[in-house]
């Protein structure tokens, strides 16, 4: 291939690869709409991250200072309550002390840096789903598995908050050959059938059930916690997004305003031509 062909091939295939990286997942992703205007949510997300994830996953492309400024957290409060690395200063990158060798020995794999994780996954939905589908699996070294990431090497860091989920079989409406739900012809009630695992997932039901009383948060509170966490990692993936969007609006307003004068000027110029 000569240079020109190679460039052409790259242009044709690159967008394909970019799209494929967001590709097929083991279970459908749950929807979440990130909101960077919601500073309280971002602050809560940062707090959860620094308390529960940072020990294993660094955020080394981000600085404490920038995070504090963008999220409206006073620097001294940030240092006092959210920074646990003893050598870290407000201007430091958000690294951690875990070495690659230790990580390999402890988990068999290295926890990735998560600064740009949501961008890599095509949005925060992947993380949002991942953190909500851990379930008990005694055959795994950490005692848990994950519906979205089979045989994951990570322990469930928030199990005390969420509680333990187990894989169960559920009674769901039986489907007729035409795809409709089957009903009893006399009573009109739905006819139920027991389904497990993938069959449940295919029908859009969760195969997981929370073991009562094992978590300190309600399911709604836990979902909110994970929403905030995913929102925060959506922010770290591209910290200038909020500012850019704000400036973008001014640019569009300016262009709209400028158009009026350009149009008037254009009319002056073409007046003589008729
Ligand atoms: C005790 C260490 C530890 C803690 C704490 C921890 N993780 Fe992990 N995490 C890991 C390891 C190890 C992996 C690699 C798993 C694998 O490759 O199987 C991982 C993988 C992940 C992945 C998947 C990465 C991929 O390849 O797609 C995500 C997302 C993630 N962690 C998010 C989090 C979040 C969010 C928190 C905090 C709530 C957290 N982790 C806390 C050890 C940890």
What does this structure look like?
This protein is mainly α. The chain has two domains: 20-132 and 217-257, Cytochrome c-like domain (Cytochrome Bc1 Complex, Chain D, domain 2, Orthogonal Bundle); 169-206, no CATH class. 46% of the residues lie in helices and 10% in strands. It is built from eleven helices and eight strands. The chain has helices spanning 3-21, 39-52, 64-71, 75-81, 100-107, 117-120, 125-130, 159-162, 197-202, 219-237, 241-271, and strands spanning 59-63, 93-94, 134-136, 144-146, 165-167, 170-173, 192-195, 208-210. The strands form four sheets. A two-stranded antiparallel sheet has the order 1-2. A two-stranded antiparallel sheet has the order 3-4. β3 and β4 form a beta hairpin. α2 crosses α10. The longest helix is centred in the last third of the chain and has 31 residues, at 241-271. Residues 16-22 have low confidence and may be disordered. Heme C (HEC) binds at residues 52-53, 55-57, 107, 109, 111-112, 117, 127, 130-131, 149, 152-155, 157-158, 229.
Concise summary:
With about 270 residues, the protein is mainly alpha-helical. The protein has 2 domains: about 20-130 and about 215-255, Orthogonal Bundle (Cytochrome Bc1 Complex, Chain D, domain 2); about 170-205, no CATH class.
SSE topology:
Blueprint: H1 3-21, H2 39-52, E1 59-63, H3 64-71, H4 75-81, E2 93-94, H5 100-107, H6 117-120, H7 125-130, E3 134-136, E4 144-146, H8 159-162, E5 165-167, E6 170-173, E7 192-195, H9 197-202, E8 208-210, H10 219-237, H11 241-271
Antiparallel strand pairs: 1-2, 3-4, 5-8, 6-7
Bound molecules: heme C (HEC).
């Amino acid at each position: 291939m000569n240079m020109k062909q190679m460039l052409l091939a790259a242009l044709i295939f690159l967008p394909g690869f970019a799209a494929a990286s967001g590709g097929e997942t083991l279970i459908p992703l749950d929807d979440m709409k990130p909101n960077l205007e919601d500073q309280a949510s971002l602050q809560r997300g940062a707090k959860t991250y620094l308390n529960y994830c940072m020990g294993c996953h660094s955020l080394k492309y981000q600085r404490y200072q920038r995070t504090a400024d963008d999220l409206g957290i006073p620097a001294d409060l940030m240092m006092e309550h959210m920074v646990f690395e003893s050598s870290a200063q407000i201007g430091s990158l958000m690294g951690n002390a875990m070495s690659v060798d230790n990580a390999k020995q402890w988990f068999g794999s290295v926890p990735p840096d998560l600064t740009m994780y949501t961008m890599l996954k095509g949005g925060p939905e992947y993380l949002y789903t991942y953190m909500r589908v851990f379930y008990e699996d005694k055959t795994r070294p950490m005692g848990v598995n994950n519906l979205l990431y089979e045989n994951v090497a990570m322990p469930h860091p928030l199990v005390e908050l969420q509680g333990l989920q187990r894989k169960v079989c559920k009674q769901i409406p039986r489907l007729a050959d035409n795809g409709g739900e089957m009903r009893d012809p006399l009573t009109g009630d739905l006819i139920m059938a027991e389904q497990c695992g993938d069959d449940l997932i295919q029908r859009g039901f969760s195969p997981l059930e929370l073991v009562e009383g094992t978590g300190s948060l309600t399911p709604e509170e836990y979902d909110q916690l994970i929403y905030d966490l995913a929102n925060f990692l959506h922010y770290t993936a591209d910290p200038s997004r909020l500012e850019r969007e704000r400036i973008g609006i001014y640019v569009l307003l300016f262009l709209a305003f400028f158009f009026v004068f350009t149009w008037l000027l254009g009319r002056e110029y073409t007046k003589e031509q008729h």
